[in-house]
Design a protein that fits this description.
The chain has 333 residues and is of the alpha+beta class. 35% of the residues lie in helices and 23% in strands. The chain is built from 9 helices and 13 strands. Helix 6 runs antiparallel to helix 7. The chain is globular, with a radius of gyration of 20 Å. Bound molecules: (3R)-3-hydroxy-3-methyl-5-(phosphonooxy)pentanoic acid. (3R)-3-hydroxy-3-methyl-5-(phosphonooxy)pentanoic acid binds next to helix 3 and helix 5.
Length: 333
């Protein structure tokens, strides 16, 4: 039996009371994975092959307002105060997500979405974007949903969006069910006030191969992929231990090794997928040199050329000195 996205939405929303309001606003943070999501077992429902674990970036993310329009109107989408054309793939993705919440009714909406991060920063705004859109459209329909249900619905827009429903450290449980009803994220209770993430924007150019296509290519074309879920599972256990013990070296080393293993599977795909630019490699070498010189700093990378640094507050001065353009994010209050 196969399930469509509409089937899943129907199961979650079918019994919810419909209490429409005129407008509803929501916010969601960007998240950066310390153990990455790479590979889907179901591409329609965005069901992952492996669990992943992320940390949210406070204050960096998406504000979304959904406003009810007259029945019969066309959905309208604004991104960062600019109208998005109906032919644009962003418009189509947003409308496809709104469709999940209409349940056969002819409700029409205006969506105003504003990212508080520069798109060029290489921080995926699709995760915070679909999470905020999910909260806002559920709110405008008056559906009362818990965060687990919101996480499942956000996942239907973009996999990593299920993690952006929560703040702090978040684990996405891959689940086993064919309809994905057990594939949702949940927050970890720990906080780590000294933990910092440094964003290095190396290039603003758009991704050549998006994560959907990149994942599919990796899963299909490299024998190295079979090792990935095994390592991801082991890494998550070590990361959870490191978080519980506040062991920074263990956290950083595991996150960096995990990211580079993901990139190794990408590079070994065919045609090859190399998201790195020469500047990315230069940063990696600098980070490794700093570690040799005794500065505890680690790196992680996603499906793009930008590098994110992980470090603790006491070395922030050395990091700023080595990377004058770094944007430092304090991850916990
Ligand atoms: O959710 P997507 O389709 O944007 O994929 C995210 C993939 C990575 O950013 C590379 C890893 C992750 O877990 O965020």
């Amino acid at each position: 039996m196969t399930f469509s996205r509409v089937d899943v939405a129907q199961v979650i929303l079918g019994d919810c009371e419909y209490c429409p309001v005129d407008t509803f606003e929501a916010w969601s943070p960007v998240n950066i994975a310390l153990c990455k999501y790479w590979g889907k077992r179901n591409g329609v429902l965005n069901l992952p092959v492996n669990d992943s674990l992320s940390v949210a970036l406070p204050g960096k993310g998406t504000h979304t307002r959904v406003t009810r329009l007259q029945v019969g109107a066309k959905d309208i989408v604004f991104l960062n105060d600019r109208p998005v054309h109906e032919a644009d793939s962003f418009y189509k993705k947003v409308v496809a997500h709104l469709d999940l919440f209409r349940l056969g009714r002819s409700d029409r909406f205006r969506v105003d979405t504003v990212n508080t991060i520069a798109t060029a920063a290489g921080l995926a705004s699709s995760a915070s974007g679909f999470s905020a859109l999910t909260r806002a459209v559920a709110g405008v329909q008056g559906f009362s949903l818990d965060d687990g249900a919101l996480s499942i619905l956000a996942r239907l827009g973009s996999g990593s969006a299920c993690r952006s429903i929560f703040e702090g450290f978040v684990r996405w449980h891959k689940g086993e069910a064919v309809d994905g009803m057990d594939s949702c994220a949940a927050p970890l209770s720990q906080v780590w006030p000294g933990l910092r993430l440094g964003v290095l924007t190396l290039t603003g150019s758009a991704k050549k191969v998006g994560s959907r296509e990149g994942m599919a290519r990796t899963v299909e074309s490299t024998p190295l992929y079979s090792a990935w879920p095994v390592q991801a599972e082991a890494d998550i256990a070590i990361l959870e231990e490191a978080i519980a013990a506040r062991d920074f070296e263990q956290l950083g080393a595991t996150a960096e090794h995990n990211a580079l293993t993901m990139h190794a599977t990408m590079i070994a795909s065919w045609p090859p997928l190399l998201y790195w630019e020469p500047e990315s490699v230069a940063v990696m070498q600098k980070v490794w040199q700093m570690r040799e010189d005794g500065v505890p700093v680690y790196l992680t990378m996603d499906a793009g050329p930008n590098v994110k640094l992980l470090f603790e507050a006491q070395v922030e001065g050395s990091i700023r000195q080595a990377f004058p353009d770094v944007e430092v994010v304090k991850l916990f209050p």
